[in-house]
Amino acid sequence: MLRRLQELRQSHPLSLKILASILLASSLFAALVAVAQLYVGFKDELNQLDARLADAEPTFILSLQDAVWRLDEELITYNLTSIQRLPYIAQASLKTPEGSSYSAGEAQGSQHITRKTYPLQQNTPDGAIPLGQLTLQIDRSAAYDNLQREALLIVALQALKTLIVSALILLILHRLLFRHLLKLRHSASQITLSTPAQAFVYDRSQAQRDDELDQIRNALNAMRQRFIEDAERLKTISTEHRRLALAANTGSAALLIFNADQQPQYANNPFKQLLGVEPWEEVDSQTLKQLGERIAPEQGGLRGVIKNTRSTEEWEKELFWPYDEARPAWINIRCRRFRDQGEELFIFFAIDITEQREARARERHLLEHDLLTGLPNRELALASIDEQLIEDNNLAVLAISIQSYAEVLESLGLQYADQLLLEVCSIIEENLPSGALLARTTGNELLCALPLEEDDQRGGIERLASNLLKTFNTPLWLRKEQINANLNIGIALAPDDGDNGNQLMRHALAALYQSKRGGDRSFRFFKPEMSEALARRLRISTLLKSGQILEELDVYYQPVVQSDSGEISGCEALARWHNEELGWISPEEFIGEAERLNLIGEIGELILQRACIQASEWLYRKPDFVINVNVSPLQMADSGFLRVVNNALQLSGLPSKALKLEVTEQLLLSGNDLIQNKLQQLTDKGISLVIDDFGSGYASMNYLCRFPFQALKIDKSFILNMHDDDRTLRLVEATINLAHTLGLAVVAEGVETARHAESLREMQCELLQGYHFARPMPAEQFSRMLDTRESLICEYSQRS
């Protein structure tokens, strides 16, 4: 029986609890009802007893008082016996004032005995006379016995009723509720993360649906669906967590999480490796403490790191961290603070920055050195000069310009210009004394600094500069072409010319500028007045950038005459610039600067338009008039150059045959098919092309055959020197013959004497140009010259 109850308790605990609750509640209720019933019945019986006594009192009281008054003992005894025989009266006793006692029945010792006394008296005219006191012992045991029997009966009946009702209720609950709950419990017990159970179902008719049990089933099904969804999310989170852990352990970043009590919470494998802990071991608080002492000893270890992180939100430090002797490394370690579910946590991020530091060192080297040559750049050179001046203020600074760099860049391209620069730098380094500094400051300019010899300071620098220039007398070979480096050098000496690197460099550049004005392959020492020339150059650059040249520029014209007749066949348009502040600015000063600033396009377009407009006017006076206009290689390389030429011709109405464009040899050296196509398109339009300054550059005979030129202009340096050097004279004659052989006309510029003119005429040079005939002049003056229609050769012959 006990075993069966134990099994029921394990299999149906809720049923037993409900049954026990019903039994307890029913029993308590039945007990309360029984007590109420028994109490009411008991009280009715006692009330009935009291009512009987009350009804009998007048009779036995009067009878007994009469017997006592008569002093009739027999009658007294009789009355007491009659009273005792009444229900529930166990004893009746009388005690008179004289002390006499009478009784009927025996005294009882029961706990249910109560006593009731009645005073007896005789009323007379004189007043009431006491006769004694009647005492009754009332025995209520029978009433209590009846109460007990009724109580037992009621309890038995109520218990039986409670059991029957409870069983019925339990059966109904099992039928309507418990069996379905057991089925739901069974379904719920099958749910796991890997195998969610089927939906919660039970066997109920449709009429029984839509009640609380159905609501529970629906809630369980909804919970099951949420469980399935949460299980999927948990699976996804688990996968992400596993992958994050894998990434954290296989990545390069070292991570360590600890709390404010300096207790480690998590450390990935890279951080364990950082600490020298095996991957399967845990990082303990002692290891964490030692880490804090190692990374921040000046801050008191880990507590100081925590304090600083709290105040600044992030703590960071770079440390030298040798993993072992074979792996010295630098690490960057940062500490950040965050909260997780209210708990304050800290995380260390540590990464190996050895490669980054090496990269920064390389970057710093690149920032301080020229990428092509590997030489120090301007900033590093100036800093080095300042350091040298601290040790010894006797220092020479040389600014070196490779004049042919720009020409090679325009003609052969950047690759060959860089090759030229590398070869020049290598040769200069070989010829510099030990301890000298060589740096590259701009594209074609170098800066050299070297200590001065105390006994012969200026003389030693002069010899060094001269030797450098002589070294480059021998041409360099580039693209099977001989290239003259053509160096210019400017020299500033400390302490006379400056006491810091920046000042010395400025003065050396000023001297270099003067050296360039003096011609290639020369050097100059700085003089105070050179600063004015450099300031003038900077002012010219500023004016060019502002566009003021376009307002102040003028075009002058120099006649080109026929050698046989001396008649003017045309002229060359030459730019002239007069500024109120700087006065006359020569083309040598502003053309090169405009090309450097990439402003030559606008200036060249303006000159071309003005020249064509003026030539169209002169064309009415001389129908075969031709005007020559110089074109910069940068203009020709511009994609819109053909459009510029067309616009100038359309604007002026000048026929294309009346225009000659002069280009330098540098343009030909590029070997660019686009340039060749442009030249051919210009020729196709009827525009003549002239090679300007022939002989001063690097053009070969091959270029004369490849490009569609109609004329060749011999550089004035050959004309000026042809009577001083027989080889130059023969070279001029050979050039003229070669040009004629190729079908080219020849123009000689720089004709300054009648002898020049006569010699060239004898060599059958068709066209002459130079001061012997006329200097460049404004358009008005040139117009008057055309109006004279006289032979310039005759005129100059008469003057001579």
Write the layout of secondary structure elements.
Blueprint: H1 2-11, H2 13-70, H3 73-84, E1 89-95, E2 101-104, E3 113-124, E4 127-139, H4 141-189, H5 212-250, E5 254-259, E6 264-267, H6 269-275, H7 285-295, H8 302-312, E7 314-320, E8 330-340, E9 343-352, H9 354-368, H10 378-391, E10 395-402, H11 404-411, H12 414-431, E11 437-440, E12 445-451, H13 457-471, E13 476-478, E14 481-483, E15 487-494, H14 501-517, E16 522-525, H15 528-546, H16 549-552, E17 553-562, E18 568-579, E19 583-585, H17 587-596, H18 600-621, E20 626-630, H19 633-637, H20 641-652, E21 659-664, H21 665-668, H22 673-684, E22 688-694, H23 701-706, E23 711-714, H24 716-721, H25 726-741, E24 745-749, H26 754-762, E25 767-769, H27 779-788, H28 792-799
Parallel strand pairs: 15-16, 18-20, 20-21, 21-22, 22-23, 23-24, 24-25
Antiparallel strand pairs: 1-2, 1-4, 3-4, 5-6, 5-9, 7-8, 8-9, 10-12, 10-15, 11-12, 13-14, 17-18, 17-25, 18-19
Helix pairs in contact: 1-2, 2-3, 2-4, 11-12, 14-15, 15-17, 18-20
